[in-house]
């Protein structure tokens, strides 16, 4: 916990996202974007945790995130994704979908009469590069756009209006709309494969959509049995695309195998209130992170390849063993994921609280490499640069 | 009526002209003022159509002060969780550390404001920040003193050390000046040199004094022995060591010895040839006139007080403070006519009059943040027990409610207020109930957050109200599925019935069900209302029919009528649905079931004859997915 930096930012943070790092150079993530909500003027902001800033900020000790630039955002930022290194797509409560562009121009300040080295200043700006107003709407009102996912140049958005809309960053119009994709609110969306997406809704369903098909109905519906607990977030295992994790209103973490069965593979008690986000670690998917309205951020770790009992794996404080509610259905796959192998010999799954006591909701988290960032309703951003993965 | 403590301040509203009659309405953190239509006789001109919003507390809208509110909220919540039943001895260090946390948050805010004030080019903003810095400075000064006197309540000996720290912390300009002097080419000849030395002496920072004097001694080899003597005096001054083994009496004896030694030096004119050293010597003796000659270096009467205590009464007790405080203030302020509010607040603190401190602060400051948090902390220290207000609850709760209500008027900070209301046992819940319903709900996400607040506190009335708002909104936007979900969440049977009706109407109009994903997954929620049960069961019938499970379908269909689950207005549609089952090659309805079916039809036709014998009911056409049989054919067959 010592490695966590907290910064109060005077706005409630609804979304945080690392800027992707290019694969060629093995860089550590340095820049992230945040979106605010419930403010009179909401903003999208770009921050840096890099130490070699030449923007002339002499204060701010090592590791404190520094604001690079920000831009006004109409409505709450309900979701935010990086389209590529410089472009950010946001989903707004006004129903608009916006692409922002982050410019970094190096400017050489010429000091004609000075004998010092010219100072190179990075001028950071952000501007709107494309806007689809009222992408989500009712006949006579705006409908909040609740989620966005993109795989450049394609952008898929979902909303309270139950529609799924597909855009392309290089086209002005709408590529495809699935009207009435859901009778209730779609809370989140993610890609399963390049042509397939997954949506979760407010009546506890997980729907698979195949864009190769022209039909406007889902190719598969999975649901929680019985109690219709709304699902708020979804993430796909980065390597094994049939494994999906969702988080719901009751704070329960569900792991699904979309290839088999229409009900979750396992249910785990995680939080005491809405789980707002769930993320597999992108390169080390045995680790998973969740955050919740109850003000906690959990780090889940499943031990895949070792048969070592968990008590030999080093003491981590405040860890607890979670209950795995369902037994697996005869796993005979040659390569079984740790998330599905859960014959729950107790202690295969360890959870750790990652934040000091916190009372207000943790709305968003993102993890990349050893770095984790999260934002809260307490108007704070937490950055941890040494996540043990 | 009670007298007012201070004359109310007058706020001029620029847009309103003289002689107009004004009306107003109280809000939780502001007042709305408008021009009435009343006209004095002879007056003319049209009224102004504006409503003016007048706010006392602007600080809540300062982005930097928002950090103060957010961080202190966290500390506040932590304080409330300290267990009541712990022995007070183990709680005291916790309270002191919480008090320090609050102060460090104030300090952080102050530093940030200071930075903005210095770096901004906007003069208005700079002034505003500058004002806020000075307010925060005063707040921190008062808080720190309260911490020393009330929360820590140090015993004699330690008390003076705490007071010294307090003065040193708030008179930091000495260090700045000292840096300037030391960085100059020849510090000992700098014109501020002696000011710095004397300031250090006044603050009891004798190590620094000795280091400074060495520089002067090096310049004056002739006077070296005199400087040496002063150095010895300074190094020998005893300071109480609270952690040590020395008792207070032992310290007192030692201190008196030292005091006499200083006095001897003054009497035998050891320093007579150097007026600076003689001055220092007089200060060390605590000579009042000498101290008062250096008012500009002391700056404030409370610095004077602490310096006087340091050199005259180092073993002062808490209970004796008020006597010295009063006299020091009078001595120090004689030239100035009226003490300022800050002086009165600090004096009240020295006099141990906590209520006076809080009252004066409430009047002098324009927001409730400070008094609410300080009072809460003092209340936890059991320092406010006996005091109850003749209105509302006790002082702590009253102030917390005021502060939290202010937060609730803010479009974004309302979430913080919830926890404050939670810790107001008497009226907190009522306040929360009234306020939470008025939070505007722009998105479902926000509605869910508000709902969570209500559900955690079993505020079922508010839960119902919020769900109803969301359900109505969904209905208005023709989102039946969402509307139904919200009314199921609220367990609002009447509304669920209404929406089920809409679903059935839609079905009758279009012949297909909309929102199948929802209706097929109702589960136990189906039992919320009769009509919803019927909707779910009727859809189940369609499913069975679609799966060609005719016998089960027929049984279900019949039971919908015989068990009176289906509203009678829908029976004709159900009977129509029975037709294709009757027309199947194999027999599906048993004889008994057919009789029951006939009985239902008779019951329906007889009731129809009574109610609508003359008027032609609109023909109910049913084009369900499995058959296309207009209404009249069934009549033909039945008759």
Automatic annotation (TrEMBL), chain A:
SUPFAM superfamilies: WD40 repeat-like. It comes from the Eukaryota. GO terms for cellular component: nuclear pore outer ring. Its main location: nucleus. Pfam families: WD40. Keywords: Nucleus, Repeat, WD repeat. WD repeats lie at residues 224-266, 268-310. It is found in: Nucleus. PANTHER family: NUCLEOPORIN NUP43. This is Nucleoporin 43. It comes from Astatotilapia calliptera (Eastern happy). The lineage of its organism: Eukaryota, Metazoa, Chordata, Craniata, Vertebrata.
Automatic annotation (TrEMBL), chain B:
The keyword Magnesium does not apply. GO terms for cellular component: nuclear membrane; nuclear pore outer ring. GO terms for molecular function: structural constituent of nuclear pore. Transmembrane segments: none annotated. The gene is NUP85. It comes from Astatotilapia calliptera (Eastern happy). Component of the nuclear pore complex (NPC). It is found in: Nucleus, Nuclear pore complex. Functions as a component of the nuclear pore complex (NPC). Keywords: Membrane, mRNA transport, Nuclear pore complex, Nucleus, Protein transport, Translocation, Transport. This is Nuclear pore complex protein Nup85. Belongs to the nucleoporin Nup85 family. The keyword Protein transport applies. The lineage of its organism: Eukaryota, Metazoa, Chordata, Craniata, Vertebrata. GO terms for biological process: mRNA export from nucleus; positive regulation of DNA-templated transcription; protein import into nucleus. InterPro entries: Nucleoporin_Nup85.
